[in-house]
Specification:
Helices cover 26% and strands 25% of the residues. The protein has 329 residues and is of the alpha/beta class. Helix 8 links the parallel strand 13 and strand 14. The two termini are 18 Å apart.
Length: 329
């Protein structure tokens, strides 16, 4: 089988297309024919060498969708459409950047769908993270509220905007790029805010003088203290991104968290396997019904994995980048 192998830490050029032996199933694992894999910034950081526990060479990819080719689980018949996310995919064992992936049965989520592979591949990691983050914020469908998304044109930001808009929330989202503002409006964002390095508080308060009820911070540690100041007193901030790193330097909870304001976080590993399957199936149904509007930025073939990583690393994407391993472009 063909796979994109990360041979060492480095730039996009360290991803090499190689012929690998077809994996053989073993107890507790299934062989999946990979039809699509969404690209994620965590894979970019792993490729760059920022995941010390990952040993190279490694087939990256923390998510994929496809069909069961062989299985040791009677509940996973050959031909069943499945999705998988996290659980050390592409880290402890080879992941989705390949024509086939040998995956633990416990990770596989059976899915019933009519969606094309490129759209389905854009959903698992992105929409499960978006939904989990909104749940962590305490967002309730149909309830009033104002949601600010920081890092709005990331794939998770656009997914969260789509879900929140369908829930009836009033939404605002930030972007540093004027050319990406229309893409946010297209997924239902009410107020698109240009974060150009000036005072974001001034921009937000022109829209919502009292501040948002919720802030979904996908930029991460560099902006969390500011997000805690932006949210209304008694509101909630959820950190679900790490674009700016993992640590908040000199974090002082008593000084930085206003009384009554809540700070929480979400990590998609908590919605893998059986925990995520019903959530993902519901998301798929909403996409099929036209309620959620996923944004697929670009679709690449496996041979173009270097270009795909370069596209992601240069912040050219608006929404989700997808690779279809079995498709020639």
């Amino acid at each position: 089988m063909r796979a994109a192998v990360c041979v060492r830490a480095g730039g996009p050029e360290v991803l090499e297309i190689r012929e690998l032996p077809m994996p053989s199933v073993r107890d507790g694992w299934s062989l999946v024919r990979v039809e699509g894999a969404g690209l994620n910034r965590s894979e970019l950081r792993t490729r760059q060498g920022h995941s010390p526990n990952v040993k190279f060479p490694r087939v990256l990819g923390i998510e994929c969708v496809g069909t069961v080719a062989d299985s040791t689980d009677a509940a996973l018949p050959v031909g069943q459409t499945v999705a998988a996310v996290m659980g050390e995919m592409g880290r402890e064992f080879d992941g989705g950047y390949a024509e086939y992936a040998l995956l633990p049965n416990s990770l596989l989520m059976p899915i019933s769908t009519t969606l094309p592979w490129d759209v389905l591949a854009a959903l698992p990691e992105t929409y499960l993270t978006a939904q989990g983050s909104l749940d962590a914020l305490g967002v309730v469908p149909g309830a009033p509220g104002r949601l600010l998304i920081r890092g709005g044109t990331s794939s998770v930001g656009m997914a969260a905007a789509s879900i929140a808009s369908a829930h009836g929330l009033r939404t605002a989202a930030t972007t540093r790029r004027p050319d990406k503002m229309d893409a946010l409006r297209a997924v239902g964002v009410d107020h698109v805010l240009l974060d150009d390095g000036g005072s974001l508080a001034d921009v937000v308060h022109r829209v919502w003088p009292e501040g948002p009820d919720y802030v979904l911070d996908l930029i991460g540690t560099a902006t969390v203290p500011d997000s805690l100041k932006l949210v209304r007193r008694g509101g909630t901030v959820c950190v679900a991104g790490s674009l700016s790193g993992w640590l908040i330097r000199e974090f002082e909870p008593i000084a930085m968290i206003p009384p009554g304001t809540r700070l929480t976080a979400f990590h998609s590993d908590s919605l893998k396997g059986a925990a995520g399957a019903p959530v993902l199936q519901r998301i798929v149904g909403e996409v099929e019904a036209g309620v959620y509007r996923p944004n697929v930025d670009r679709v690449f073939g496996l041979d173009d994995i270097v270009e795909a990583h370069r596209h992601m690393e240069n912040d050219q994407a608006t929404g989700k980048v997808v690779v279809l391993p079995g498709t020639k472009f």
